[in-house]
Write a structure and sequence with these properties.
heterotrimer, A alpha/beta (about 325), B alpha/beta (about 450), C alpha/beta (about 325), A: about 325 residues, alpha/beta, Rossmann fold, eight-stranded mixed sheet, two-stranded antiparallel ribbon, C: about 325 residues, Pyruvate-ferredoxin Oxidoreductase, domain 3, Alpha-Beta Plaits, seven-stranded mixed sheet, 12 strands, about 30% helix
Chain lengths: ~325, ~450, ~325
């Protein structure tokens, strides 16, 4: 394992020049995955259609990828990327993994290759759930990074199966008849464990050391490792500049998407999120920073705290109880062997 | 290792417009050396169409990874491949069973992009091909000529579902971007699959191929098949398949599948069209080379029967697939009985449609009866292409459009006779409808 | 299309043929809303037809976008892009760094700019011939909407340029557009104040500072040689200078006169662009010494938020025009 600072010193394969929004968590996550993967192995990256893809792989400015200024002769710094369609990231990665392995099996290549796939939650959990689960089920030795912004951000912030209850999205608008998203998110962590993943984690770069350590472990996993990265979306969640990392951390601590790492055979743990609701930061503070929850909470001028809007108390309580069940669920999953 | 396949000439970095290529990263000769020959001598065996196609891919040293998903009537291709690989102790070829056809197509993209010097085959049919459509279009535009998608023709419509063969699936995918070649008979299937990558991977072409044959009528009928020794197969393919000048994911620093705006998109479509048009230049040359080496006809735009040297005939049939054989078998008899000069064309290259060659072949026919076997709401896919090919002739043959054999329906001799009579009537001045469907000797 | 049409009277254009409008701005800057509001205002006249559309591709917040508007007294059939607008609008001066907002505007055309500069300064700087209308929209936005967003003011300035509208209908129409977007009532009132303030802040003049060759329409030069399948090289192709995404008028500054940087690396690992400059340091592991502000910094503020020593800050920054024009 490398230290946090050692990772910072590495050369990321995700370069500046993407057209992602300022302060995009996907960008921060890919910067770090790019750094951790600068480990002496050639990297093949696959990416599903998503914000991260259209904002970084635009012809003729494929600006945002490649291990920059290293000599092109240095194969350990070699980097390739492929995109096909929404659901394809795991399948493309699996194919590249298999071809690399079969070439190695023939003695046709002898230098190590690592394969990483990235999708959004829409790509991985809606249109691409089948692809993801089957790649896991086939025990493909890839690292799958799912950037979970809880919406189809690329098409304009619509509902996805990872959308938090009550969140306002373009297709779950708030109106007199509906208070935002009426559904609970899919239990994707449990699904991945059940499908046979070697490692499943949920962690964002807001937990910086844990994040890089988790990606390192994932890259070393000998079956499929899936890392869900909670990715606050500045344009879709509608929060202020400079709040991305803070929100990622607060949401994890509040129980909306607790940091969680599980390894097959070793079990897992919930990190930096208390099991008891009273020991966690107030949920209202997390909701209040995002205009997608503007219908639930407002700032109380007297206390400066966010509180439930009059009449919305039952919804905020439902939200709190969902958060509690979410935390409990992860604590129970952590006990799986 | 004798031939220049693996000893690619060292290329300077940035040698391609697509990024850095590491010419020494993959030692392809190791893959070639690891190949275990299926046949060391020319042999005559009995095989059905699916087995013929499977054997051809198994004999290629460039095929090491076989992705697939079962669907009638192409399933036996996969089973044959799996059976051979299962008994090949120490062999390094692998079967990859996916969860759906869509995943197979996706997988082919990733695999073919990973190593552009290997060939990645699969076989599918009907709704399996439809299920791949999201990605067949990506593949068609990708430049990945090392993808070999064998389509075993089967009617595409459900409501009702039909597992038997007509080419409505391949014809529904005319614009996916694949080179589409139709085969009839086991030998043509085997030979076509062997030649297809030579065409698709040609540097001027770089376009995936979709050889196809009729489900059931060809996929499930057994007949004699001559198989060539693997060494001969390799010698032929290695003569045509040169190391890809473009980097793959493994041996390159490169990006596949970028997105563009309208400022560029059309430009890419123009180059894709041009690559496809070069098929018309290279296909006959590959076919001629195949014939030189193996003594059998190689790839061609179409097969013909009954044309005199000057091409002047009264009635010319245009169709595709094995039912052409029934026509061949009765042609002379019908000609004698009717006193007409009767000839036929069985299309092989469907996309790109060889317009000029078709026109040249048919320009001196008085009437052309186009027999369509796939459902179409107009006069038939094939009719439209033939009409387009003949359109600029000063004296255009009369084009008569008929349908027969939809969903693999039997096309009997009586049906052929009735269709020829229909053409003959039109030739004699009788008004015929824009299209007519025939079955069991009757017009429906 | 008439070639020697007088394009200075915009109202006359609407009645006689068609008024074509083009706007340049940055995604997320409110250009689309401004154009939609203009279209809604125009449609209050039952005799008027409009066609309004943005071109944004996959641009995210801060990237250049364009909006188009056609207004006519007759049904509008044309579907092609607007290339010689009689009215050209610049929502964000930052956007003018990478496009010529005056491109193809015929002599005597009208220019509306969201800027603190005077019409005369703008005419000289951008080489404009015609009527130049300016409004300091960002300042009005900051004052009334607590946000330096100039679309409210720009909308008012364009209505002024076209002429013939009463302030009430200008205000009502805009607020109606906002209501359709479910904007809360309190914010609607702030917008009303901004609209009224804007009407007082429009300035204009007519100048002859540009020659026809100053703003040529770039000819299409063909597709060139395109790589097979759009497969693309990666290394060293960082040509998309995203510093232009940052809001105008401010910039990131890193200052560490006392070498307070602890080398915690949080700014490095949390910078979405990966542009924090640092060097290995024996004592701290690493030492941050700057940021690549001028090429890629989108000014998202994450480094400001995560630095425990508060070494990053957002500071006012006035683009000097000489710099902007430098190639």
């Amino acid at each position: 394992m490398s230290g946090y600072k050692d990772i910072a010193l590495r050369e990321s394969s995700f370069r500046p020049g993407s057209t992602l929004c300022p302060g995009c968590m996907e960008s921060i996550a890919l910067q770090n995955v790019g750094r951790v993967s600068d480990n002496g192995r050639k990297t093949i990256f696959s990416i599903g259609t998503s914000c991260a893809e259209v904002s970084s792989l635009a012809f003729p400015n494929v600006v945002a990828w490649g291990r920059g200024d290293a000599s092109p002769d240095d194969f350990a710094k070699s980097f390739s990327i492929i995109h096909n369609v929404f659901e394809s990231a795991p399948t493309l990665a699996e194919a590249a993994r298999d071809v690399s392995d079969i070439l190695a099996d023939h003695g046709a290549i002898d230098r190590p290759i690592q394969v990483i796939a990235a999708s959004g939650d829409g790509g991985a959990l809606a249109i691409g759930l089948r692809s993801l689960l089957h790649t896991i089920y086939r025990q493909s030795r890839i690292t799958m990074v799912v950037l979970v912004n809880e919406i189809f951000a690329n098409t304009g912030f619509q509902y996805s199966p990872a959308t938090t209850p009550f969140a306002e999205t373009s297709t779950t608008p708030v109106g007199e008849a509906q208070a935002g998203n009426p559904r609970l998110p899919l239990d994707y962590i449990h699904l991945c464990i059940a499908a046979g993943a070697g490692m499943v984690a949920q962690v964002s770069p807001a937990h910086g050391k844990l994040f890089v350590k988790t990606i390192e472990k994932a890259l070393a996993c000998d079956t499929t490792a899936v890392v869900f990265v909670p990715a606050p979306c500045i344009s879709g969640w509608k929060f202020d500049d400079g709040e991305t990392v803070h929100l990622a951390e607060l949401g994890a601590q509040c129980g909306a998407y607790p940091a969680f790492v599980w390894e097959r055979g070793k079990g897992g743990a919930v990190k930096d999120c208390a099991r008891e609701a009273d020991d966690r930061p107030r949920l209202e503070e997390f909701l209040g920073l995002q205009r997608r929850f503007h219908h639930l909470v407002q700032k109380d001028p007297a206390s400066g705290q966010f509180v439930a809007r009059p009449g919305r108390e039952p919804d905020v309580e439902r939200m709190r109880s969902w958060t509690q069940s979410n935390v409990e669920r992860l604590f129970r999953l952590a006990e799986l062997p | 290792m004798k031939e220049p396949i693996a000893t690619a000439a060292p290329m300077p970095h940035h040698a391609t417009p697509s990024g850095d290529l590491y010419p020494d990263a993959v030692r392809l000769e190791r893959v070639r050396e690891a190949h275990r020959a299926l046949y060391t001598e020319r042999e005559t065996i009995t095989a059905d169409g699916n087995a013929a196609a499977a054997l051809a891919t198994l004999q290629m040293w460039r095929c090491v990874l076989y992705a697939g998903f079962p669907i009638t009537p192409s399933t036996k291709w996969m089973e044959t491949v799996a059976a051979h690989i299962a008994k090949q102790v120490g062999g390094k070829k692998r079967v990859k069973l996916m969860e759906a056809e869509h995943a197979v197509a996706d997988y082919l993209v990733g695999a073919a992009a990973a190593c552009r010097d290997l060939v990645f085959p699969t076989a599918t049919s009907s709704v399996g091909l439809d299920h791949m459509t999201e990605t067949t279009r990506s593949l068609g535009a990708s430049g990945l000529g090392n993808v070999l998608l064998i389509d075993v023709y089967r009617a595409t419509a459900n409501f009702p579902l039909c597992i038997e063969g007509d080419p409505s699936d391949t014809l529904a995918h005319r614009d996916d971007g694949f080179i589409q070649i139709a085969c009839r008979g086991k030998q043509q299937i085997y030979d076509t699959v062997l030649q297809a990558p030579c065409l698709g991977m040609h540097h001027d072409v770089l376009t995936p191929t979709m050889p196809g044959y009729y489900g059931i009528k060809d996929s499930h009928r057994n007949a004699r098949l001559i198989v060539e020794p693997d060494a001969e197969v390799h010698a032929f393919q290695d003569r045509w398949i040169q190391p890809c000048p473009l980097p793959g994911l493994v041996n390159g620093d490169t990006a596949f599948g970028t997105c563009v705006t309208s400022r560029h998109f059309q430009g890419f479509k123009v180059s894709q069209k041009r690559r496809m048009e070069r098929v018309l230049h290279w296909l006959p040359q590959i076919g001629a080379d195949f014939e030189r080496q193996f003594g059998r006809p190689g790839l061609a735009f179409f097969d013909t029967t009954g044309f005199p040297d000057d091409g002047a005939v009264d009635l010319a049939i245009v169709t595709m697939g094995p039912d052409f054989g029934t026509f061949e078998a009765m042609r002379e008899q019908y000609a004698a009985k009717s006193g007409l000069r009767v000839a036929g064309v069985a299309m092989r290259l469907l996309t790109p449609f060889p317009r000029d060659a078709v026109r040249k072949r048919l320009e001196r026919a008085k009437a052309v009866v186009v027999v369509n076997q796939a459902h179409h709401h107009g006069r038939g896919h094939l009719t439209l292409d033939v009409a387009d090919a003949l359109a600029d002739l000063a004296v255009m043959p009369r084009i008569i459009s008929v349908f027969a054999g939809l969903g693999g329906a039997d096309v009997s001799q009586a049906t052929w006779e009735r269709m020829l009579d229909h053409g003959r009537a039109a030739l004699g001045g009788t008004t015929v409808p824009p299209w007519a469907i025939f079955h069991e000797g009757r017009q429906l | 299309m008439e070639t020697h049409q007088d394009v200075s009277d915009l109202r006359a254009l609407i009645e006689a043929s068609v008024l074509e409008v083009r706007g340049d701005g940055k995604a997320g800057g409110g250009l689309v809303l401004a154009f939609q509001s203009l279209a809604n205002l125009m449609l209050r006249d039952p005799e008027t037809h409009v066609q309004e559309w943005p071109f944004f591709s996959s641009a995210r917040r801060g990237a250049n976008i364009r909006s188009f508007l056609r207004i006519s007294g007759r049904p509008i059939q044309a579907a092609c892009e607007v290339t010689s607008p009689a009215l050209s609008v610049l929502m964000d001066e930052g956007a003018a760094r990478s496009v010529d907002f005056a491109e193809g505007v015929p002599p005597g055309g009208t220019f509306v700019l969201n800027t603190r500069h005077s019409p005369e300064e703008c005419a000289r700087h951008y080489h404009l011939s015609g009527r130049v209308v300016t409004i300091p929209g960002d300042d009005i936005g900051t004052k009334h909407l607590k946000h330096p967003i100039g679309n409210v003011s720009l909308y008012v300035a364009v209505t002024h340029a076209i002429g013939g509208f009463g302030i009430e209908e200008i205000v009502d129409s805009f607020l109606e557009t906002l209501k359709k977007r479910r904007i809360p009532a309190a914010i609607l009132e702030r917008n009303r104040a901004a609209l009224l303030a804007s009407a007082e802040a429009v300035r204009e003049g007519t100048y002859h500072e540009g020659a026809p060759e100053d703003h040529p329409v770039a000819p299409w030069t063909g597709y060139g040689t395109l790589p097979v399948g759009a497969q693309t090289p990666l290394r060293l192709s960082q040509s998309n200078r995203t510093a232009g995404y940052a809001p105008s008028g401010v910039r990131l500054r890193f200052e560490d006169p006392t070498t307070a940087c602890t080398g915690c690396a949080h700014c490095i690992t949390n910078c979405p662009e990966g542009i924090i400059r640092f060097a290995p340091d024996a004592e701290r592991g690493l030492l941050v010494h700057g940021v690549d502000v001028s090429t890629f910094c989108k000014l998202c503020g994450e480094c400001i938020a995560v630095c425990p020593e508060h070494l990053f800050q957002e500071v006012p920054f006035e683009d000097r025009w000489e710099e902007v024009l430098a190639p």
